[in-house]
Amino acid sequence: MLEICDLNIRSNQQLLVKQVGLHISAGEIFALVGESGSGKSLTCLSLLSLLPEGLKAEGQIRFSSTDGRSDELLGMDQTLRTQYALKKIAYIFQEPLTALNPVQTCGTQLLENIALCGVSGRQAQKERAILLLNDVELTDSRKVMNAYPFQLSGGQRQRVMIAMAMAGDPELIVADEPTTALDVLLQDEILTLLQKLCREQKRSILLVSHDIDAVSRFSDRIAVMYKGEIVESGNTSDILTRPQHPYTKALLACKPTPEKKGLYLSTLADAMQTEGLVSKHFPEETVGSEVLAEIQNSGKDYRSDGQTYTALKDVSFEIRKGSSTGLIGESGSGKSTISKLLVQLEDASRGEIIYDFKNKRPLSSNVQMVFQDPFAALNPALRVDTMLLEVIRKHNTDLNVKQQLAEAVSLLEKVGLSSSDLKKYPKQFSGGQRQRLCIARALAAKPQLLICDESTSALDLSVQAQILNLLKELQISEQLSILMVTHSMAVAAWFCTWLIVLKNGSIVEQGPAADVLANPKDPYTRAMVAHI
Questions:
Q1: Can you name the CATH fold of 282-357+448-532?
Q2: Which of 88, 81, 90 has its CA nearest to residue 1?
Q3: Rounded to an integer, what is the distance from CA 219 to the centroid of its chain?
Q4: Rounded to 5 degrees, what are φ and ψ at 310?
Q5: What are 312-339's pLDDT values in tens digits?
């Protein structure tokens, strides 16, 4: 169905994608895997000449339709390209909350797509919309049609995006990181849905991801991209069980697992040199008996349209000094609500939170948070020295100017950066480096409790490994308590000694990590553990 030959993508004199060649058969699920910047998305955008301004594609991209027609896609005229975008090749983008219009209902946007694809008449369009929503297993079509994107869960929004992509009955679906920000069970739901649509309706899917493990269960073949080139391709089972290229082996080695607990995770550079063999241990963790924070029967209610919605039911747990506690659950389970209560961004509707930090410093000095998206968390107009010194001055009033600057340098070195980075702006750093800056800024307040709210979920596996190693080092060396808020049981199992599992605003299970992993009692916990 799709054949790409000798594809090059250039920016001025720089070659971003080099001699890429691949083919996708009718009814096949093909996964294109690699880290951010490897050229995956550029390769996909070149299919319909959607590359950003200043980039040029060369080579051949031929699409053969089921009706026997064959077209060269590179250099295609605008009219034919529009027809392809509506009825031949559809895109599902990474973040539905960004891709969907926030001021229009989902129904309005879906009906608009259906009309563009040639369905005329309001009644026929509505019938088509309901059919599409049923296909993506959104059976309460009236509620979904009337809802704005922010009123739906992440999984529901992604299903709406899939329904919109299916409006023109495309032959090829390009799914560009469709599950990156979703929890592991929701990832499986979305990928299972795509697999079902492919098998039942004879469509082909080009599945793009930085997580080779996530797509491995759903793809027929895999191609691995590294620095703009395809370094390895073949049947999924062969690639997973007998990877040949060092980069493929490294990608598989970076993933955190319970078996690697206590060991440093492989970074990309390490894994490519040692083929994933890691033997370096962390120092032994020492968790004290001192309780820093205790959540007692705390709950949170919200009011919307005259109705009360309970986001968090009465939950209770404690965080000890020097501990690593995992707060695990799907989107909407109440994880972020608990985080906001702990830093007093919101007040609990009932219950109480008791802090015992044994000092007279304000709560903002003792509790800091590292957020999910380092791109949004840093002010693009501020240099590194400005943002660090601002926090240092507020929380360390006894330091003079020279000492403040020395403290800023020390913080950068602590997170693996250097004094030469002080005068840089956030745009001059990679995603992993930005997350290191966020951690340095949080540490500038000298907190006793650090809340990491999905702080690695948007990162490539190799970058995630670097950040998790850094956080574990800081937790042990600084006797820092870390609350790891995550939807990944694999991350929590590797990082944490105590696990708390949330679902629908309630704690369904908590206990020592080893016990929860070895003998999960709740069905939801068992499902999460099964996906490690």
A1: Rossmann fold (3.40.50)
A2: 88
A3: 20
A4: -90, 110
A5: 999 999 999 999 999 998 877 889 899 9
